[in-house]
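Key idea: predict the complex, not the pieces.
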Amino acid sequence: MQDFLELSVSAAASGCVYGLVALAYLLMIRPTGIINFAVGEWAMVAAFGGYLLLSRFEWPYPLGMAAVLGFMFLVGWATERIAVRPLVERGAPLLAPILALLGMLVVFREVISVSFPPDPHPVPYPFGLGRLELGPVGGSYQSFFIIAVTLLVFVAVWLFFERTVAGKSFEAVAIHRRAAALMGINLSRVTALSFAGGAGAAGLAGLLVSPNISAHYLMGVPLAIQGFTALVIGGVGRVEGALLGGLLLAFAEQMTTRYAPIPSGYAQGVPLLLLMIFLLLRPTGLLRSREAKA
Amino acid sequence: MKRFLAVLALALVGGVASAQDTIRIGVITDRVGVSKPYSEPATEGLIFGAEEINRRGGVLGRKIELLIEDDQSRPDISAALARKLIDQGALFIISMSLTPATQQQQTVTMEAKTPQMTPMNSGDTLTTQLPNPYFWQTGPLGSIQIATLLAHARAKSLKRVALITDNSDLGQLLGRFFKAGLEKSGIQVVAEEVVPRGATTATPQMQKIRAANPDAMFMAGVLTAENVLIFKAYREFGLKFPIHSSYNLSVPVYMSVAKGLIDGVTFVDAYDPEKPEVKAFEAAYKKATGKDPFNLHGYGYDGIMMVAEAIRRAGSTDKEKIRAAMQSLSYAGVMGARGMKYSFPAGKRAGFDPNGMVVRVYEGDKQGRVVHVGQK
Amino acid sequence: MSALRWLAAFAVLAALPFFLGSYYNDVYRKLLLWITLALGYNFLFGICGQVAFSHFAFYGVGAYSIVIFLFQFDLPFPIAIVLGVALCVLVAAAVAIPSTRLEGFYLALATLALAQLFIVVLNEGGAVTGGTGGLANYRLPDVFGLRIAGPWYTVVIVALLLGTLAVLLRLDRSWFGRACRAVRDNPQAAAAMGVDVARTKVIAFALTSALAGVAGMVYAFVDNTVNPPIFGLDNAFLILFMVIVGGAGRHAGAVVGAILLFLLPFFLSPLIGHHHVLVFGVLVVAAMLLQPRGLIGIYDALRRRLA
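Result:
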């Protein structure tokens, strides 16, 4: 039982990271329909930012974190400017920006790959490496930190969409682009903001996970795949679906490895298999979006 | 016009002459793919070695010319590049990339009867899967690594151990040979775990190992980030059983990326910093490049040195003679325990001396002294 | 194309390797295989609009199955070929029937999972698949007592390429090709016109996957070794980029894209070292931004201006 609770903390932390990446996808997909696979590379860029500011220059953690996230908003905004807006303005099919962003994925990875030595780079923990026991539940400081920050972010994003006018305008764009434009919502600003927000969420995921997995030039693609899987499980309709999908995926991965009576090498295949079955049975994800219910 | 033609002719003749003047050695490395962190330093060591040979007058009175190609860790490209190097007149091909890439190059060198060697790949199957008399491997084999670790741990009379690795090609291969070595010694493997590339935690794997309560844990993985996850879970759980690792822990990146996590971890290495040859190598490398080398540089350095020695002994650029010279080579290099020699007795083509590895222990974040040598 | 032009194309392409050295022949035949794959993938992605990442997994199923049938199970050559093709079609159909029900990028994800699963199976396959080291130490069995090797094997690959192209061209120009394009452009409209959308997708997926499998069977004897890294995700993305850069939906585009992106590292790596991948990324972005119809679109524009 102790093991199960301990594993739950670890799986929840991994699930939160996946959930943040899924949120990054979702923030961009909702208003624009664009799937941006470069989110994994954004997480990597933020992890390298964390390495530079926190390990090399030894900035205090909150300051370094704020600087990295600020930089990520800029990266997201710039990415939208370079690779998305020209295509959208030209009225290109939806696949065009998706593919351009796949190219940006390669560009981000290679810029990092040629600028840093190929070895993994350490990123420090905000609270050091240690273990917290809350009654029967035990886990690393970082796990609890990841869970706390992620929950805060999701609550904030949820409140933004549900309770603010700006958030409603995002939702309006998601539901009907042209109608939203007619109501006076600035489409290109919503798009730019959604990319900045997406880069912020992905960057946060990278920053939170990098003390565990180090900053590494090949770390992006696995995160992008895990996050997208989480998104598909949770469904693109609702913000909380991203977190739910991430948690489900992480629990499936880690519980299979821990408890399934199969060789460890095959255990990695089980979540993939689950995903395929899941896709076939419920391709819209667990949580339906508002307009689907209406 | 006449003068132009004359110059052109001269240039052409000159080009041909200079091509004949050098001994061409092909190098296939990885500059962008997954094995880049290992291929790059080893290739730097190799380049330094070639420069040193040339400073001392080269081989057979001719300078060594390195033809370096980047295979991006793509085996099919790797094989094509092997053909390119052979077409360009390479007498020997040195493989510094992924194990499957080295394997696929072999299908070419076997057909073209061109000598090929890898100074760093450690999968035992490279010399057993293909009957290629033109291929040698001088990296420390997985089977030697586990035997050396076990010889060191013999006093502890291990009975039940855990084995953990990753899903990279080399990690899987080492894992297989570690398991075989453990079972051969009558040690029971009570938990066998894999941390996949891209994992965000090793908690489930380490929980299983903790539950199996082993006498020790053996690590065969070669992915740095994933290995660090294992150490983090080990520290977080406050586990006490000793860790014995493959030679991957001998790479100095762990001193920074696993800071505070690796004190007391035992690892097998092919590098003894107290060895006179190593001290001389490190000093010369530092003087020439201004950078401190480490063990990976030594692999590449030994590789080019052995190839040069084989050509020297062959006394000609005839590939068949070079093959024979390489097969009968006995060479003491930078790598390996004091006094170790690479050799290929009885038709064997894996040349790292089974007694040539050393066991070292991390003291704090530093790689400590050699505590054990060989398999005895 | 008339039979005569096909014959001429075959003669030229098949004669070429006899004038090439072993390196250029090797690059040439691997390029031909990439073109073959790109053509098939172009039909699936460019013409039928299905984004799938399983193309290389099927290439791998073909390659591994022929080697395993021939040398692990010691089956006769013709039977091994038939079984290999049958296996590809079977697996492709088994994957296609459920997964083509999925829309857009969900299909991408399902096939992404399939591709990863395939690599797990190869790595964990023990003696049957040779694990991470793959299988080696075999060679093409003699056909009617003849040993086919070197440039002669390239002739086989030329036949494969032209055969694949012929099948795809024929399909493209039939009602099926039109149905595929209709499904890509507007599935609802296609259904309204009486096209069975699901069946069209399944057939296109199974057929192109089977073609990839056949190409894989030919690949198995190029270097006489098969190992997992070839069939991984990196190449699945690369083939997508090839079709995009060349011009999705056009056979000529797939050919141009495959030639350019396959040869790019060979030319750029000696010039600019490891920066060549960065150039590749910039190229993909630039292609999408400047000429969404790909390189073949530039060619079209040029021709229109000249005409």
